[in-house]
Amino acid sequence: MLEFRAITRAYELGGERAGVFGVSLTVPKGCLAVLAGPSGSGKTTLLQLAGLLDTPDEGEVRLAGELVSSLPEKARCDLRLRRLGFVFQAFNLVPVLSALENVMLPLQLQGRPEAEARERAEAALARVGLADRRHHHPGQLSGGQQQRTAIARALAPEPLLVLADEPTASLDHAHGGPLLDLMAELAQERGATFLVASHDPSVIARAHTVFRLLDGKLVEVG
Ligand SMILES: Nc1ncnc2c1ncn2[C@@H]1O[C@H](COP(=O)(O)OP(=O)(O)O)[C@@H](O)[C@H]1O
Ligand SMILES: [Mg+2]
């Protein structure tokens, strides 16, 4: 589903070279894959490349077989909207909208009719166990409920790939495991593909595949 071929993205900072170097990896469809490694090892850099928010200096990013890293900005933007879902550490829900309206947002941006957006968003929220919270605003939801809303929002448009950067970092320990269990179930039942950056052991324990990074290099696949 997602393939990195010999990806290098280097940052020069005061003579120091940082970034990711020569990374090749494949995430198959229906897989929950985790990018693991200490802070500064290159996890976010790779997620931004997979999310078409950045382009590599060398190498190729392929999505469902298509070479996407060299597409023009307009085409990458379109792919982001139609084919990718994003879950962030800080949830990034719109505070003045209800959970339902938050989940409807990307569906409406895709140009789907209101009734269809509502129906899909309600189904997505029910699937993550929040049917009875759909009219609550983010501030009225717990951290775990906000993150489940963010997962429903990412998945409702049926993206090819969902990218999550440290999705459990704002949750207490009791919530990280169940959140990843939910992602693993969704990967299995929908054939959705997840790429999650995390150094949380409870996240890594639930991965189908773990890519370990160190100093911008892929050092282990397990
Ligand atoms: N925009 C940037 N400018 C300069 N250096 C950067 C930038 N983004 C990341 N880096 C550097 O690249 C390395 C990898 O960072 P990052 O991908 O954010 O790691 P992680 O997400 O694993 O903590 C770090 O050394 C970081 O300082
Ligand atoms: Mg990071």
Q: Please name the fourth-level CATH homologous superfamily.
A: P-loop containing nucleotide triphosphate hydrolases
CATH topology: Rossmann fold
Q: Provide a count of the helices.
A: 7
Percent of residues in helical segments? 25-40%
Main sheet properties: 6 strands, mixed
Mean pLDDT reading: 94
Could you tell me which ligands this complex binds, including any ions or cofactors? adenosine-5'-diphosphate, magnesium ion
Gyration radius from CA atoms, angstroms: 17 Å
What is the β-strand count?
Answer: 10
Strand order of the largest sheet: 6-7-8-3-9-10
Give the DSSP E fraction (strand runs of 2 or more residues): 25-35%
- Measured distance between first and last alpha carbons: 18 Å
- What structural class do you assign from the helix and strand content? alpha/beta
Return the CATH class: Alpha Beta
Contiguous low-pLDDT stretches (5 residues minimum) are: none
Assembly state (oligomeric): single chain
